[in-house]
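Table S2 (continued). Query chain:
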Amino acid sequence: MGPMRKDLCPSVSSIEPSRFCGPSWAGRCLEIDSALPIVVIVYDPRFLDHVPSPLHVERPDRLRSIVERLERERLFHGVETPPTATIADLRLAHRESYVDLVRNLGEGFLDPETAVHRDTFDIALLAAGGVLLATRSAVRDGHPTIALVRPPGHHAGPDYGGGFCYLNNVAIAAAEQVAAGRRVAILDYDAHHGNGTRDIFAESPAVLYVSTHEYGIYPGTGPAEDTGTDEGRGFTVNIPFTAGCGDASYAAALDSVIEPILGQFRPDVVLVSLGIDAHYRDPLTSLTLSSPAYVDLVKRSADLAARLCANRFTIALEGGYHLEALSEVIAGVVAGIEGRSIPLALTDVLDDKGRGREAIEATKRAHRDFWNLR
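Corresponding output:
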């Protein structure tokens, strides 16, 4: 089944963005509807045991900083401990030969930045189990969930890993939902293109994969013209931003691409691969999202899930390597969905003109035969 014909697609009314207090984004706190449900957090301290190599940027302090900030803001509650994913779970997204490779490698490398140690596979199983649990909970109970897991996953494809990723946590959870007959939308807000997620679902009309990313950096994939393959054409949506794109560009992408396409796709479940490496303080990329814009990005996505699929909404942690930005944004996201506001310090707006307009227009051209986009 291909994308719905444009003349048969229902229109989706515009979603009101989250409101902010004050005349500018600097120093603002989010103002959220307090009727929204409490977020379930999935976390296990064993995630801290994963150390790819000394001084590696994907380090345990990433999760420590998040938990410390959540505790300080009195947001670290409703925490559930994940199960370990099974081999059968992994085979929903990965080929058996690749699963065997990672399980049996012992000590080695998937790429120069992705070291495998004797405990790597077990911790990766736990991360996959964390996103599975979070997604199952959101689907069963109709409430938002957030899986604070590591290692991340969206660069792991059917038969490969890399980019700090071993198993594709979000893809495994999405594939389980597809196997149960549900349509899944994956919103990948990491600064790097999720090549693994794209490759796993490129041919599937049951999974809508939307990625905002900095084009030209690792892994070098994700042009606007890549719309998927075969029956999956139209269900891969890449928005390939350039260096400097930030607050205004992401808001425009939501308005003109993401929200209209999701409204026409009508998912049963929305999963977010959330990397905080598009933040202007992140050391690995050149995108410029501020903390309030990041929180608003996720809040608007949660609002959309509330309208389209009854709060079946799960966030899974991917990248993000500046500890203050990472912890502040995650705390702001949890607070916002719970109907609270917290002070945000990293509020500089470096893109107020919409530098990503050209990328957005390229995406719209690539998808004009699949979706009704103005």
